[in-house]
Each structure stands twice: as structure tokens, then as C-alpha cells.
Amino acid sequence: MDEFLEDVSHLFITGELLRELESRIPETALGRNLAEELHRICQDLRLQLGALHRSAASLRRVSAAELFAPYPRMARSLAAQLNKKVRLLLHGDEVEIDRALARELEAPLTHLVRNAVDHGIQPPAERRAQAMDEIGTIRLSAQRSSYWVRISVEDDGRGIDPTQIRRKAIEKGFLSPQQAETLSNEEALQLIFHPGFSTAEKVSEISGRGVGMDVVRTGAQKHQGTVKVESEVGKGTKVHLTFPIRETVLVLDGLLVRRHNHLLVIPVDHVREILQIRPQGVWSVHGRPVLRFRERCYELFWIEEVLGWATGQQEQALSGPAALVGPDGAEVCLRFDELLGHRQVVVHSLEEIFPACTKTQAVALLGGGRLALVLNIPEILAQCRLPAMSTSEAAAL
Question: Quick one: pLDDT at residue 393?
Fold first, then answer.
């Protein structure tokens, strides 16, 4: 599948070469006719290639419904063994997940569902005594944004008691009584991921071996994901698995820009606006250049600054093009020398070759054999972002 996607992606390079050829046709009467005809062909080719790539890329994904399919039956079977009553509800069935990630999620989700039935949901008599529905509810849900996919497992059971976790940690020798006492409830919850840790009072075929949550965290980390646990005693537990969306080979919509002799691509999905900076809009706050724009202020960076290429002598950002990037309320302004236009580019991930280069997510293949680095905007924002100033703060400038 990856090879097929790569072959499809390479067709976009051919499209870029035709576009380059179109730009070199001489400005004569005959040349203009040829250029117009070639332009129409390039437009049609671009549309056809876009449709082909979307269809090919969809073959790499499966729906959350397919991922979740085994768990309702598993939950009912396990509940019957434990003399409990459980309903499992599914949300976000239509969300699409990378096929490889879905395979890796099978073991973690199995552990989470088993834990919810075994540890979370109480027996019917106990639930009735607490004025709860005797049928416990477990929810499996999927969410997706442009940057991440999140799988959540939630139950309305007894919750995780931090006091019990501290006691078990002391019994197993993971912590001293003094160390356990200093832990906050949130820190105590993190102990459930410790290898060998379990709150089960006895080992059974279902629980007590202390391997489940460790497997969940290891599986998440394998795909650069995170695990977050929320729990309240008597209310239930939520476990969120969040993974960045990563593609090895894809075609990306981007803005091609130039800074000095470097070609760079800013993904269109992250661009809120293209600006023309004027000297009167640039201020200095705490020694940093700041752009005042529409009653708000944004930190102003040259592209080489955020990439760590700065050589010590920084130019003054007085005028020229820039891009406002990032989510609403947390944007920064990136400066460059020239906007070369909107492009559909074939990109290849640099993660395996340069794992430490997190601020560039890929290299784009342009027509004529040229290369351009694709900026990883979420990572850049995480490392250099300051919150945008409020209207009142901006007015003070």
C-alpha cells in the first residue's frame, strides 16, 4: 500500500514539471496559445490526481467502527463471567484511523475494556445500594482533528481510589510511606502505569497480574502517543489515548515561501492569514518584536529563528510578507522574504532519517528536482508560543 501511494504521489511531481514547462513558454502569440492549452491540461491533471490520491490514501484507513467491533461482545461475555450487567456504547464510529495504528490499538483497548468491566463496574447489588442503574455503562469513543486522533474508554463505575493506590504502592515496595504521602491524587493515578502494579486483591484469569496498564502506556508511546487518566471515586474513570496523525508519504497543500536561499513549505491547514507587515505595526515588548494586528498582538519570528538557524545578527522585521499560523488565540507570525504561491507538493517524512528534527516534519519534492522543508507548525508553536495579547493589552501599546 505504501509503495502504491508513493507511485501515485510521484505523479504530482510530473504535474509540477508540466507547470514549470508552462512558465517557460515564450511570450509570443503562438506561445500564449500553447501556454493556455497546457494550463488547462495541468488544471485537469491536478484535479484528477487529487481525486486519485484521496482514494488511494483512504485505503490506508479503517473506521473506528471496525476497530470497536469486537468489544461489545467481549464486554458482555466478561460481565457474564463476573455476574455483572454491562452495556457498551460506541461513539465516533465514522472516524477514520490509520490501519497500522488500529492494529496496535487492539491490545491496549482489550486491557482497558477488561479493566473497566472487572475493576470499574460494580456488581448489580452494589450499584442498587448506591442508587445507581444496576447496568453499568462503558463508552468507547473516537475523535479526530487535523493533528491528532483520540480513543477514549469511559465507565460509570466505582472510580480509582488514590488512597488505595498509595497503600498498594507501599505494600509492593514501589514507594516509602513518606513518598506516598507527598503524592497528589493526580500523581498517585500515574502509579497504575508502573510495571507490575495492580490494585486487584487476588490474581485471576482476568486481572491482578499488573501488566494491563503498562501495556497501554507502552503501546501509546510506540506511536508517540499519550495516555491521560481521569477518575473520581463513585463516578467512574476515563482513559484517553491521543496520537499524532503521521503519514509516511502524502500530497500536501502548502504555501511555498523563500527565506534567503531556502525554500520552505507552510501547510495551508495551519495558516490563518497572509499579511504584509508595515513598520508602524511592529513593536518591541520585553525585547521581542511583536506585531499589532486587528487589536491583538502576536510574537513575530523570522523562520530561521524558530528552526534554530539564527546566526546571532537578527534583521529587524520592519516590512514584508508574513503568515499568521496556529489555532485561534495562540497564533504566532512567521516572517519570510517571498511568497512563491500555493502548491500541492509530494512530501516524505524525515522522522526516521532525522528523528531529532521535530520542527520540520518532511521534505517536499518540487518540480525540477528542487527540495523544500515542510514546517511542523504544531511543534514550532509548542516550543516558541506565547499567548496572544488581549485587546486591552494591545490597546496599551
Answer: 44
